[in-house]
Fold this sequence. Notes:
Chain A is α+β, with helices and mostly antiparallel strands. Chain A has helices at 7-34, 39-47, 66-79, 81-101, 104-116, 236-272, 284-313, 318-343, 353-364, 371-382; strands at residues 121-124, 140-144, 147-157, 165-176, 182-192, 198-203, 215-225, 229-230, 274-275, 278-279.
Amino acid sequence: MDFSLSKKHLLARALFKEFAETEVKPLASEVDETEIFPRQTVEKMAKAGFLGIPIPKEYGGQGCDALTYVMCVEELSKVCATTGVIVSAHTSLCCDPLLTYGTEEQKQKYLVPLAKGEKLGAFGLTEPGAGTDAQGMQTKAVLDGDEYVLNGSKIFITNGKEADIYIIFAVTDIVTDRRGRAKKEISAFIVEKGTPGFSFGTKEKKMGIRGSSTYELIFTDCRVPKENLLGIKGKGFGMAMHTLDGGRIGIASQALGIAEGALDRTVEYVKERKQFGRAIGAFQNTQFQLANLATNVQAAQLMVYRAAEAKATQSRYTVEAAMAKLFAAEVAMDVTTKCVQLHGGYGYTREYEVERMMRDAKITEIYEGTSEVQRMVISGDLLK
Amino acid sequence: MKIVVCIKQVPDTKGGVKFKPDGTLDRGAMLSIMNPDDKAGLEAALRLKDQYGAEVTVLSMGLPKAEDVLREALAMGADKAILVTDRVLGGADTWATSTTIAGAIRNLEYDLIITGRQAIDGDTAQVGPQISEHLNIPVISYAQDIKIDGDSVIVERQFDDRYHVLKAKMPCLITALSELNTPRYMTPGGIFDAYEAEITQYGRADLVDVDDSNLGLNGSPTKIAKASDKVRKGAGEKVSLDPEASVKYIMDKLSEKHII
């Protein structure tokens, strides 16, 4: 077992760090304050190849591994969690299912421009009545001639209004299972922005990741060519769950980055901040708290990297992904909360980045499966 | 068009500086980066490649770990990399370095050689022009803009309060300023490819038309008498007085030390 990173991974990390510090960090507060999507940063990331890291070169990507992708989201999230989730949603939730389930034609038409960063991707599963419980889904797709007609809506969609290509899940049939119960059969579709009948609803006003474009998507008699059915008809639920396994590794990386960023800022702060004639870092309470936080951050990093390794080498990595996301998200919330505390009153102001990081951390315990859902997934595997 | 870009691995000024007993830098013990002027030179070459089509070869003389900056250059888009490394080349000053690099370049075909103006560790700005002397080709230093015009280059050379426009027939050598451009980022895929790529290694035996007496520490006319890290100043003295008393205090101190 080798815990050291290879030279190429170390150089990739140095690249992501330099990019994050130079291009992303200076805008992070403004992006949070103004809730404006950082379009220019996305264009720079596209140019630098950050929007297709784990996608093979033949499909316009960089041909790197899951670990490299994870480190990219981690380093971006250290300075700006909004930027981290833009990359994560695009890569894990849109590029990845196209790579896994797309036909060669679909890959050429949609994956290549996505992986090159010419287009941005999004994923629409959640509905007002169906988040984790996909059977509550109301959006329908009905085959009419050579087209599927979509009707319904999706909420809380990351990269919502900014994306160009969307993976949308809809009910295509109702079947009866072996016990005679009606069961919704779900399928996935590739929908392009600008398709007639596809519009945007309200923009969410959020606690954190405020620059991320979170929108409601509305489908009203939206006609999609039947060639845009992704994967096998009726197998959409399994595809969504498998996609979310990968997505959770992305969010775990985001959570890890937020925790690391907050810890870095706090280590700097406690060396500078003086109380009772000494830097507060000289007090044992500060030292012990920092030691605990750093230990948890290190544990989270090992779990996230382990999950990335599992994705690269195993066909199923559901449990590894759930554990990494559960742990990293809770570490992010705990670390950022304590970092705000160590900053005292200043930590509660927007002058200091830890305030934003604490707000940003919360979502990692919620989206792409809440911490409770991760516990269901993990225990489900234990008790099967 | 074939372009050779000379790059140097230099100590990262953010890290500490360490010396060997003979006064030369202990490069193996320091964090290192690609010299900023050289990186601008590489970017200039890559832009010429983007615009006109070219094969860009990066060349570095140094310790085996200088391979790291060559891989970085490959990850930015260079096509080939050559590392000139040999124990007998160690401790070289600018003369021995330029002799070595010229000896290595004599193996290659080139239309243009680009070096950085100077390295942040030595700050001599001598190696580039010296290479051109050894190879008997024209040199244009301090380039802030480079264009190709048929078989010539047109270069804006930075001068105190203006710039000169110079034209030279290729092959020639240009020294680049870090102000020349903003170097591109490596790409993640470029990094992965760079670690698959082969780096050509040259030793003493591969240097063409070079005399041993001009190589390494022994072949270096420059002798270092003494080297030291930045002298750290004390914390100084802090006094809190009103402006008038402060002026008197400072004047008295200066007078006491016979400065005024």
